[in-house]
Write the structure tokens for this entry.
Amino acid sequence: MDLQLEQIFSTFGGRLKWARERARLTQEQLCLIVSMSQGAYSKLERGGSGSEKTSSIAKAVNVDPFWLETGQGSPDPQEAPADDFIQVRSAELRLSAGIAGVQIDYLHAEAPPLWFRADWIREKGYNPKRLLCTKVKGRSMEKSLFDGDTVVVNLADTEPKDEMVYAFNFEGEPVVKRLIRDLGQWWLSSDNEDQGRYPRKAATNLSLIIGRIIAKQSTII
């Protein structure tokens, strides 16, 4: 990528203008397609940082919505599998010890998204914008989850439930553990049978739950 194009792609407005011009659309024509006022759209090209219309605009100018929103990956739209599927993006989680909340660094070329049937997402009542997939690290959850497995985290589900598996902020590190209710309190428990090496730990601050694990992808059967 040449320096000039890199500078254009460094801002949301720059990407927006480049994509519109590549599609050979005027601002007025694009605004008619996405049902948006030209004044509001013009502000986006001049220095906006995002819009609720990003997905519609991306579709109208034939670019990848994730690239348009973040500048990561390729402008070319990803080809979805056949039928009605929804993508769940891959991410790394950045946390601070003892502090609720999470910074999400979405990945693109490094880790492609997972695709799920839209009717399954709707049936379960999940919000696709609140789902992400991330890698399992370590052996503490064997034989349920293995090092390198991919899990889907539902960020909207942080209500503690006995025997459910969650992503948790433990001393500033994202861990995947089974939440157990025992002796009148909550525990972070490992599924690995070696409990001497992977002992359960008291879950003293349930606000540090990141989200419930709702699906996994594994190469180990």
